[in-house]
Amino acid sequence: MENTPKSSNTVWHRATVTRQRRAKLNQHESVLLWFTGFSGSGKSTLAHALEEKLYQMGYHTFVLDGDNVRHGLSGDLGFSNDDRIENIRRISEIAKLFVEAGVIVLTAFISPFRADRAKARGLVGDDFIEIYCKCPVTVCEERDVKGLYRRARAGEIKDFTGISSPYEEPSHPELSIDTNSHSIDECVEQILAYLIERGVYKPKSV
Q1: Residues 24, 95 contacting (CB under 8 angstroms)
Q2: Is residue 7 predicted with pLDDT exceeding 70?
Q3: How far apart, in whole angstroms, are the C-alpha atoms of residue 36 and residue 131?
Q4: 52, part of any domain
Q5: 65: helix, coil or strand?
Q6: Looking at residue 17, what is its pLDDT?
């Protein structure tokens, strides 16, 4: 997909309300939690469970979910390699804006290519936290909560990650969560422990 050239007439406007001021108002830092893994690995379930926990504690959060985004922002994209790359590019730019807005943003996308996740990290910098939802594709296929693997096996879905399209595991994720062996609650606690260590999350009374 070709990128539209940037206009030479645009100038970046620097706002007086900065990210630092938003963090002070919100009483917490903002980060990007990037959940990646096969379809059925638990990305969306875990992201929303974590968001619920953070929300109950008074944190400002938002989940960018793969399926939801494809109903709107990326509704014009398919699942070819080029379209997947463009989808992740758009998500990365949106996520960066959320982080600047002082929000803890959680993204739940297969995002199968290392290069695309590296670009997202490059945009957000040190506030990019890659969370690999580690679950064997065979287990994800057994779950097949959406019936997608069955359709992919039948040839009804082309370029399906894990079946007819590759998935490149993260080389050095900040967190590797075993969503096959651990419960959602255990996975949430593992992430919260990491966020406490990073100084992002400080438990508050509900």
Answers
A1: no
A2: no
A3: 6
A4: yes
A5: strand
A6: 77
**Domain range enclosing 119:** 19-196
pTM: 0.87
> Does residue 58 sit within a domain?
yes
Instruction: Please name the amino acid found at residue 167.
Output: Y
| Whole-number Cα distances in Å, 72 to 44, 64, 121, 163 | 17, 12, 24, 26
Which residues lie closer than 8 Å to 83 by C-beta, 6 or more apart? 1, 77
SS3 helix, strand, coil % of the chain, rounded to 5?
Answer: 45, 15, 45
Catalytic residue list: 111
- Whether the CB-CB separation of 128 and 184 falls below 8 Å is answered with no
CATH number where 167 lies: 3.40.50.300
Within-domain flag for 201: no
Total residues found in the chain within this entry: 206
